[in-house]
Inverse folding.
């Protein structure tokens, strides 16, 4: 049996396992047009989806395929989510995904969460490479990636999300 998922933090934010009690705030955040546009969260997003996300996060941690966290501020208000959404221990690589609640944007939430989870993944999970896939039409997320120490690594990649073709860039962060 795996140990409990760790709680990660920096001076301003705490990353912890999502809980059913977070479902209302997760649901509220995921009504945002940009979260719907730039992530793979279900649309429309319901509280049942949030409860499923919590259960999925627990399963991913238990079976070692991922590590999903909610991001809360120092007052314990949910401000986002950040997680390892695809973990390949054999290849020493993981994809990281994130979103920030609309009421918390512009405060450095995504940059801080990415730095915390990436450092943890390199140190504690022994990963050599962490990567992000960011749509070309999402300059805000591209700026966040650069600020968190990620660098564009490949040419554009086409992915299909909800039946749409999306052009994404891959951003890499390598262990020191």
């Amino acid at each position: 049996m795996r140990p409990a998922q760790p709680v990660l933090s920096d001076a301003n934010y705490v990353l912890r396992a999502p809980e059913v009690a977070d479902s209302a705030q997760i649901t509220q955040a995921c009504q945002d047009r940009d979260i719907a546009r730039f992530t793979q969260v279900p649309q429309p997003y319901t509280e049942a989806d949030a409860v499923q996300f919590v259960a999925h996060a627990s399963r991913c941690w238990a079976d070692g395929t991922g590590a999903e966290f909610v991001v809360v501020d120092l007052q314990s208000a949910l401000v986002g989510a950040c997680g390892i959404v695809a973990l390949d221990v054999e290849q020493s690589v993981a994809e990281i995904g994130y979103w920030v609640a609309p009421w918390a944007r512009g405060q450095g939430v995504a940059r801080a969460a990415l730095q915390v989870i990436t450092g943890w993944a390199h140190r504690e999970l022994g990963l050599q490479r962490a990567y992000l896939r960011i749509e070309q039409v999402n300059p805000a997320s591209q700026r966040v990636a650069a600020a968190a120490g990620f660098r564009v690594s490949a040419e554009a990649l086409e992915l299909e999300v909800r039946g749409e073709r999306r052009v994404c860039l891959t951003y890499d962060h390598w262990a020191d």
About this structure: The chain has a mean pLDDT of 94. Residues 8-127 form a domain with the Aminopeptidase fold (CATH 3.40.630.30). DSSP finds five helices and nine strands in the chain.
